[in-house]
Structure formats: structure tokens, C-alpha cells
């Protein structure tokens, strides 16, 4: 008889789950779509460990009705879907997967910068509607990326990795955030500026901060009005950081040049949402970390965090390490 019961909210490769099968009764949600909230609650109520995804709402009430729960392990670095304070109050560690997805996500951010600046999607749509008849001297013109100024909002792991790519492309780099990062910034020649100055001087703004109460709708009508005419916004962090109505208005007014979004609110964005049809907007379905290698590493890390929590050990990657201080 296994010592623990765990609930895993999506199917993951068997070889990655193997260490769990040895030690626990493993309940894996079998569908492609996430468990509905009631099902998530019901199954978590019986679990010692929960391995969840960013699509699962892990709120205080769900945590409260799971008396055996001793670890929550999220297969993502961002954990804005989890009420970490409620978990901490119960002494439950919350695991996440920082680092292993940094380079893949920065690749996607830079892909969106290039795609938005050089109008890749507009070009593809142009061909698809049969409009390609000749080479045009002034058709489908985009913007140069080299020599332009990139503003990084949140020079953490992914922000710095995106800045490294920009450095290689000959961009000038500005960054903003709660504190200066002199070591990282020196290597990239990046300058620490206020949010307002970053908006005013950047040709491309790339968002890499977490979604928190302080960053929800950080990009609102006021922020867009402060951006340079023709500037490009790229968001690979969380959809809730951008007010999409204000973004749409800034694009329609011709104030913003283009946008590249890997994250939206809600996800998925309804197919009839005006941003989906908007020229100069490229939207990808939250695939920042979606490479074979990275998703395997994330799943392995989530399993390692889960097992540590079940054993009562310190999680290798923990969002609320203070729970261990209280023990
Ligand atoms: N599109 C995707 O598939 C992925 C999205 N993400 C998102 O990217 C975010 C960042 O991930 P990491 O770089 O690993 O995190 P990190 O913790 O290394 O970096 C976040 C940075 O944002 C800064 N920050 C916090 N509040 C801020 C504010 N109000 N204004 C400006 N900066 C602020 C922090 O000081 C930190 O430097 C995650 O929280 C997640 O939401 C992460 C991985 C993949
Ligand atoms: O890790 C995250 O936070 C993601 O958004 C997906 O990798």
C-alpha cells in the first residue's frame, strides 16, 4: 500500500512520473482540457500532494478543504494562479520551475519582437489572401530592430535572457523594476530607468515581470499614451499585466505600431476578439516554454519538488521557503 496519494492535473510522460509511481497512488486527470474547478477541488481534497498547471485555480477555499495536503507543485515558474499566502498559512510549500525555461521563453520573446517589427504575420496573411502579385518598393514595410531601443520591464531571469539576445542584435537596452541590477546590466550595457522613462524612450517594450496586484493592468491607457508613437509591445509574461481594451484602442488609433502577445487574458482569447483580427498583432497560444527539452525539464522539476514535499523535505525550488523556517 502506497504511503501517499497525489493528484496530477494533466497527463505527463510516464518515464518522468516513474519516481512517483514507486512511492504514491497517482491520480492523473486523463483529459486534454484541465479539470473543471469542482473536479479539481474534489480530487485535491483526497490528496497529500498536488502537481498542478498554470490553468488550475488553486485558491484559499480549495486549499482549506484539502486536510491532507502537504505540498503544491506547479509545472511553471509563474504561480499567480495559486493563493500562496493561503498555502503558507497552512505550512504548505509551493514548488515551481524557475530557470529551466528561461532561454526557451526568451527565444519566443525575441521571435515575437522580430515578427512584430518585421510584420511576419501580415506577410503570411497577405499571401494567404492571394494579394502577392509582385515585389513592391514600399509594400509591407516594417521597422528595423537593430539600432533601436528595447525596454525590459522586469530584468529577472527571462528579462535578462531577452536583453542578451537584444544586445547581440545591436539594440540599446533600458530596464525598469523594483530595484537596480548592476551586475546583469553592466554585462549588457543596460540602463536602469523609471517606468515612465522606459515608456517614453523605447521603440520596443518587452514585459517580463510576474503578474501581481501591483502589475495587473500596468499597461493601461495611460501607459500606452506615454509610449513612443509607433512603438511595439511584446508580452510573454502574463495577460493580466496588459489592459487589452486599452491596447486595442492604442493600436486602432495608430499610436502603437504593433504588438506580439504570447499571453492574454483570458486564455484562450475568444476567436472573435478584435485583437485576433487586428493587423500588426501577432498572438501565440502561450508557448513561451513549449519546447520538447524545456517541457520535459519542467515536468521533472515539478516531480522533484512534489516528492521532496511529500517527504517533508525542503523543496529544491520553492515559492514560499519561509514555511520551512517555521518547522
Ligand atoms: N510565456 C510563457 O510561456 C512564460 C511566461 N513566464 C512568465 O514570466 C515571468 C517572469 O519569469 P522569470 O524571469 O523566471 O521571473 P524572475 O522572478 O526571474 O523575474 C521577474 C522580474 O520582474 C521584476 N518585477 C517584479 N515586479 C515588477 C514591477 N512591478 N515592475 C517591473 N519589474 C518587476 C522582478 O524584480 C524580477 O526581476 C513569470 O512570472 C511568468 O509569469 C515564464 C515562463 C514562460
Ligand atoms: O512557466 C510559466 O510561468 C509559464 O507561463 C509557462 O511555462
Please render the helix and strand layout as text.
Blueprint: E1 4-8, H1 14-21, E2 24-28, H2 37-45, E3 49-52, H3 60-64, E4 71-74, H4 84-89, E5 94-95, H5 102-117, H6 120-128, E6 149-153, H7 157-168, E7 172-176, H8 182-188, E8 191-192, H9 195-201, E9 204-207, H10 221-226, E10 232-235, H11 244-252, E11 258-261, H12 274-277, E12 281-283, H13 292-310, H14 322-325
Parallel strand pairs: 1-2, 1-3, 3-4, 4-5, 6-7, 6-9, 7-8, 9-10, 10-11, 11-12
Helix pairs in contact: 1-13, 5-7
The gyration radius over C-alpha positions equals 21 Å
Strand % is 5-15%
Detail the poorly predicted runs: none
Query: Into which percent range does the helicity of residues fall?
Result: 25-40%
First-residue to last-residue Cα separation: 28 Å
Please provide a written account of the structure.
- By secondary structure, the protein is of the alpha/beta class.
- The chain folds into two domains: 130 residues, Rossmann fold, CATH 3.40.50.720; 182 residues, NAD(P)-binding Rossmann-like Domain (Rossmann fold, 3-Layer(aba) Sandwich).
- The protein is 37% helix and 14% strand.
- The chain is built from 14 helices and twelve strands.
- The strands form two sheets. Strands 8-7-6-9-10-11-12 form a seven-stranded parallel beta sheet, sandwiched between helices. Strands 2-1-3-4-5 form a five-stranded parallel beta sheet.
- Helix 1 runs parallel beside helix 13.
- It binds 1,4-dihydronicotinamide adenine dinucleotide (NAI) and 3-hydroxypyruvic acid.
- The site of 3-hydroxypyruvic acid (3PY) has 7 residues, from loops.
- The site of 3-hydroxypyruvic acid has 7 residues, from loops.
- Belongs to the D-isomer specific 2-hydroxyacid dehydrogenase family. GhrB subfamily.
- GO terms for molecular function: glyoxylate reductase (NADPH) activity; hydroxypyruvate reductase [NAD(P)H] activity; NAD binding.
- Keywords: Oxidoreductase.
- It comes from Ardenticatena maritima.
- It catalyses: (R)-glycerate + NADP(+) = 3-hydroxypyruvate + NADPH + H(+); (R)-glycerate + NAD(+) = 3-hydroxypyruvate + NADH + H(+); glycolate + NADP(+) = glyoxylate + NADPH + H(+).
Amino acid at each position: 500500500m502506497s504511503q501517499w496519494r497525489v493528484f496530477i492535473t494533466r497527463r505527463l510522460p510516464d518515464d518522468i512520473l516513474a519516481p512517483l509511481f514507486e512511492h504514491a497512488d497517482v491520480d492523473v486527470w486523463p483529459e486534454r482540457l484541465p479539470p473543471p474547478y469542482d473536479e479539481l477541488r474534489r480530487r485535491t481534497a483526497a490528496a497529500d500532494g498536488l502537481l498542478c498547471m498554470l490553468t488550475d485555480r488553486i485558491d484559499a477555499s480549495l486549499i482549506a478543504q484539502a486536510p491532507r495536503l502537504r505540498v503544491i507543485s506547479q509545472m511553471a515558474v509563474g504561480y499567480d494562479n495559486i493563493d500562496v499566502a493561503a498555502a503558507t498559512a497552512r505550512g504548505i510549500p509551493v514548488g515551481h520551475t524557475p530557470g529551466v525555461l528561461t532561454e526557451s521563453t526568451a527565444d519566443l520573446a525575441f521571435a515575437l519582437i522580430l515578427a512584430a517589427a518585421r510584420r511576419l504575420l501580415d506577410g503570411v496573411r497577405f499571401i494567404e489572401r492571394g494579394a502577392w502579385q509582385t515585389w513592391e518598393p514600399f509594400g509591407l514595410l516594417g521597422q528595423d530592430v537593430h539600432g533601436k531601443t528595447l525596454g525590459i520591464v522586469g530584468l529577472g531571469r527571462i528579462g535578462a535572457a531577452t536583453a542578451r539576445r537584444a544586445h547581440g542584435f545591436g539594440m540599446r537596452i533600458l530596464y525598469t523594476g523594483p530595484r537596480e541590477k548592476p551586475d546583469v546590466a553592466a554585462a549588457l550595457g543596460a540602463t536602469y530607468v523609471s517606468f515612465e522613462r522606459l515608456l517614453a524612450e523605447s521603440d520596443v517594450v518587452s514585459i517580463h515581470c510576474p503578474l501581481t496586484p501591483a502589475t495587473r493592468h500596468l499597461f493601461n491607457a495611460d501607459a500606452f499614451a506615454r509610449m513612443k508613437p509607433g512603438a511595439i509591445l511584446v508580452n510573454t509574461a502574463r495577460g493580466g499585466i496588459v489592459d487589452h481594451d486599452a491596447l486595442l484602442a492604442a493600436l486602432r488609433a495608430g499610436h502603437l505600431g504593433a504588438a506580439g502577445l504570447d499571453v492574454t487574458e483570458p486564455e484562450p482569447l475568444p476567436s472573435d476578439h478584435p485583437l485576433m483580427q487586428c493587423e500588426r498583432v501577432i498572438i501565440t497560444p502561450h508557448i513561451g516554454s513549449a519546447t520538447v527539452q524545456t517541457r520535459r525539464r519542467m515536468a521533472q522539476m515539478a516531480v522533484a519538488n512534489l516528492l521532496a514535499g511529500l517527504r517533508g523535505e525542503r523543496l529544491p525550488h520553492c515559492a514560499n521557503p519561509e514555511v520551512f523556517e517555521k518547522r
